[in-house]
Design goal:
It is built from 15 helices and 21 strands. It is an alpha/beta fold. Strands 10-9-8-5-4-3-11 form a seven-stranded parallel β-sheet. A six-stranded antiparallel β-sheet has the order 12-15-16-21-18-19. Strands 13-14-17-20 form a four-stranded antiparallel β-sheet, with no helix packed on it. Helix 13 runs parallel beside helix 14.
Length: 526
């Protein structure tokens, strides 16, 4: 079974489906207007908005937190749930969103140093006052969030930092304190964790280097010791911030990752060294216990890679949530797969404002995720209730159909244009986007709910092998299928089915075609 989702509203489970604003949109309420409009157009139930350290503490010790209050109130007015992103010490492997007074004081807020002594635009986790200052600002924000949402009916979670790590000329900090720690014995708490989890990548590397219980990071981990020291330090740094924030307001907290396992996979070049990337997942789960999860930002086009990354983060100690992804077809396909295969607990696509066209509608290249949202909102309660029991069909290149088996039934999902030019409501409608995709829930012995795009479903009873077959079973086609009911509609917040349209005859004779504008389709069979 998958670990429990962290998302709740008023004490009840919640499934976030929505968008993330651009990085700087949270500086003014005017900049957020397009975000609210995209939420409306895509039928989002939630959005994610960044709060920058430089925005709320432009002068040291003087906080301007009115923007935080306004963001929470604006989301509540629109019946949206909210994830706050804290851009503090890190944003995309750099220090871009720290206040000017931090950037200018290299003594109090020392930079990461390269192996040859150069400073880079990244703040050290090993020494100085940066952690203290970041924590103070974060706690000031958390205090306002507590005041604005004491019942927790609007706020879902807080992201602590953003795609943190070191990007630049260095795999780790080579400053004086960092170097001292690198040359010292690896902490015994890490040794004990690796002994208890021999399958983790870091544990395997330790054994390859001799499984010594004393020695420096280089002696125990070889060339990978640099990155794992950095990950260990960063995890503890972020955990201290999360712990302080939760002491004020115990919202769920997580951090996100700019992913590794790409290119030559060089830390500090292909991805931020020390961040919560795949190879560092165990270090982060072990030494940042106040984070409820760590999450991948999913921008890849290849579905196999999407599935590999989703599987890596969907662990027994880590529910899967995608805080950032694209809005195009690869992301739409990947999200449906991850719901079925990895227990995905929510998704937000990035860059809401960029998906508006000149006429105020959703751009064509963002339609795939917008179609997903139409489907997901119609089955929102089922995404929670049936998590771990949902099946997906996703059209791979050149695929014409996909077969699924459920208890008592086989289903063939056919991809492509709908049969006989569609049904009476859709044959003149703008076609759906390219690749077929669908989610299927078996809600009873002979009852299914499905939602999707570009998929037609055919059903065939599959009794136990010891039972005699009904004579017509071997030649039965969709046209002769005895449906008790085929209805389009959606589930309300209480999980009750609301029928909008009843299908029969030409609407079912050639398969049950799934349209995103239908919401969900309920099929009851004899």
């Amino acid at each position: 079974m998958y670990p429990k989702s962290i998302f709740q509203v008023n004490g009840k489970p919640f499934y976030p489906i929505g968008v993330q604003a651009h990085n700087n949109s949270g500086y003014t309420m005017e900049q957020l207007e397009p975000v609210w409009e995209v939420c409306r157009l895509t039928n989002s139930n939630s959005c994610a908005i960044a709060v920058a350290w430089e925005r709320i503490e432009p002068v040291e010790g003087q906080f301007d937190l009115d923007i935080v209050r306004q963001i929470v109130r604006a989301a509540r007015e629109r019946d949206l749930r909210l994830v706050i992103l804290w851009f503090g010490t890190w944003k995309n492997g750099h220090m871009k969103y720290v206040p000017r007074w931090v950037k200018e004081d290299h003594e109090r807020f020392p930079r990461v140093r390269t192996h040859d002594g150069y400073e880079i635009a990244n703040l050290s986790t090993f020494e100085g006052e940066t952690l203290k200052a970041d924590k103070r600002a974060f706690c000031a924000m958390m205090q306002v969030l507590r005041e604005e949402d004491p019942e927790r009916d609007t706020l879902l979670a807080v992201q602590v930092e953003n795609e943190l790590g070191i990007v630049g000329r260095s795999v780790r900090d080579f400053g004086p304190e960092a170097q001292r720690q690198y040359e010292s014995d690896v902490p015994m708490e890490l040794i004990e964790r690796m002994k208890a989890a021999p399958g983790e990548e870091i544990s395997q590397a330790w054994r390859e280097c001799g499984a010594k219980e004393r020695g420096s990071w280089g002696e125990l981990f070889g060339r990978k010791g640099d990155q794992w020291l950095q990950a260990y330090s960063m995890a503890k740094y972020v955990d201290a911030i999360a712990a302080a924030g939760k002491a004020i307001f115990p919202l769920p907290m997580y951090t996100n990752a700019w992913l590794d396992k790409q290119g030559f996979d060089i830390p500090g070049i292909n991805y931020p060294s020390g961040g919560a990337v795949v190879c560092n997942i165990p270090v982060w789960r072990w030494f940042a216990p106040h984070l409820d999860m760590i999450c991948p930002d999913m921008y890849m086009g290849e579905q196999r890679r999407y599935q590999e990354i989703a599987a890596a983060y969907a662990r027994g100690d880590n529910p899967l949530y995608v805080p950032e992804t694209g809005c195009g077809m690869p992301s739409a396909m990947g999200a449906f797969s991850a719901i079925a295969e990895n227990g995905l607990t929510g998704v937000h696509y990035f860059g809401a404002e960029s998906t508006l066209d000149m006429d105020g509608g959703i751009k064509e290249d963002a339609r795939p995720m917008a179609e997903n949202f139409q489907c997901l909102r119609a089955v929102e309660p089922l995404l929670i209730e049936y998590r771990g029991r949902i099946k997906a069909v996703v059209q791979e290149e050149f695929a014409a159909e996909q077969r699924l088996h459920f208890p008592g039934w086989d289903i063939v999902a056919r991809f492509g244009e709908f049969p006989r030019n569609g049904d009476c409501r859709h044959k003149r409608e703008q076609p759906t986007t390219g690749r077929g995709r669908a989610l299927i829930f078996q809600t009873g012995a002979n009852e299914f709910v499905a939602c999707g795009v570009g998929v037609s479903l055919a059903f065939r009873k599959c009794p136990p092998i010891c039972e005699a077959r009904v004579p017509q079973m071997d030649w039965q086609q969709e046209h002769y299928m005895d449906y008790l009911a085929v209805e389009d509609g959606r589930f309300d917040a209480d999980g009750k089915w609301r029928c909008d349209y009843i299908r029969n005859g030409d609407d079912t004779d050639f398969g049950v075609y799934l349209f995103p504008s239908n919401g969900a389709t309920r099929i009851v069979l004899e």
